[in-house]
Specification:
Layout: E1 3-5, E2 16-21, H1 40-43, H2 53-58, H3 60-71, H4 82-91, E3 96-101, H5 107-111, E4 118-120, E5 123-130, E6 136-138, H6 139-143, E7 159-163, H7 172-184, E8 187-191, H8 203-209, E9 213-217, E10 230-232, H9 236-247
Parallel strand pairs: 2-3, 2-8, 3-4, 8-9, 9-10
Antiparallel strand pairs: 1-10, 5-6, 5-7
Organism: Saccharothrix espanaensis (strain ATCC 51144 / DSM 44229 / JCM 9112 / NBRC 15066 / NRRL 15764)
Pfam family, one: SIR2
Protein name: protein acetyllysine N-acetyltransferase
Length: about 260
């Protein structure tokens, strides 16, 4: 593994860090990603249909498939890994840290990042909302009913996990907060995300235009590599361990060689 670093001034103690995380940060916790070699969409392309809002709302079969996938989802038994814990450590270090996550697994909060410092851009699988009356209940309670197409007990409406499906707009308030955080960051980390899904990926552009150092930690190339101050290919847990320590002011934690890193 190699890392291309355009400049290393970013590797310093800072006051404000924004962190965008994708599925890649949770794979070491046993949760598969979506577009990798063994990703959910890669191994079962037809599964995308069940995660499309229009199809979910119009088809009982699609709803049954989605609920079935959540019943045995790896996230229910997953534990935070070293990458989640590194970000939690950074949030306790005195550095103003905000995590903007595309993940719905809740592992950042379980690792110790305060809930108020985490923006769940794509929602959370841990809550379920009625599409008719808006009532919210824990998803585990819905799954415990063991029904293929559970209905709202209050109004009979369609229940949907509180996640953003394909064809569904992001919450404008949450997205607006994320854009403000990206624009105010001194260093903006993009971790374990392909940066192919908009409008979330454009948070990187907002950060760079505002003068932040963009640091990408990802196994594969992304559309934003060319504007990043550093592109790091080493394993996410290993990389975040020293990156977070460096940003907190522990310079001795940084690797001895700047280029390449983690060869």
């Amino acid at each position: 593994m190699r890392a291309y670093c355009a400049g290393m001034d970013w590797k310093r103690k800072v006051g404000r860090v924004g962190v965008l995380t994708g599925a890649g940060i949770s794979t070491d916790s046993g949760i598969p990603d979506y577009r990798g070699a063994n990703g959910v969409w890669t191994t079962d392309p037809e599964a995308v249909g069940a995660f499309t809002l229009d199809r979910f709302l119009s088809s009982a079969d699609a709803r049954a498939r989605l609920w079935s996938s959540y019943l045995g989802h790896a996230a229910w038994r997953a534990e935070p890994n070293s990458a989640h814990r590194a970000l939690a450590r950074l949030s306790r270090s005195g550095v103003a840290t905000r995590v903007l996550t595309q993940n719905v697994d809740g592992l950042h909060q379980r690792a110790g990042v305060p809930a108020g410092k985490v923006l769940e851009l794509h929602g959370t699988m841990r809550d379920t909302t009625c599409t008719a009356c808006g009532d919210t209940t824990p998803t585990e309670q819905v799954l415990a009913r063991d029904e293929s197409d559970p209905a709202c007990p209050k109004c009979g409406g369609i229940l949907k996990p509180a996640v953003v499906l394909f064809g569904q707009h992001l919450d404008e308030t949450v997205l607006g907060q994320a854009q403000i955080i990206a624009g105010a960051s001194e260093v903006f980390l993009a971790v374990g995300t392909t940066l192919q899904v908009e409008p979330v990926a454009s948070l990187c552009e907002i950060a760079v235009r505002a003068g932040a150092d963009l640091v990408i930690v990802n196994r594969d190339p992304t559309p934003y590599d060319d504007v990043a101050s550093a592109v790091i290919r080493e394993p996410i847990g290993t990389a975040l361990d020293w990156i977070c320590d460096a940003l907190a002011g522990h310079q001795s934690a940084a690797p001895a060689k700047d280029v390449p890193v983690g060869e």
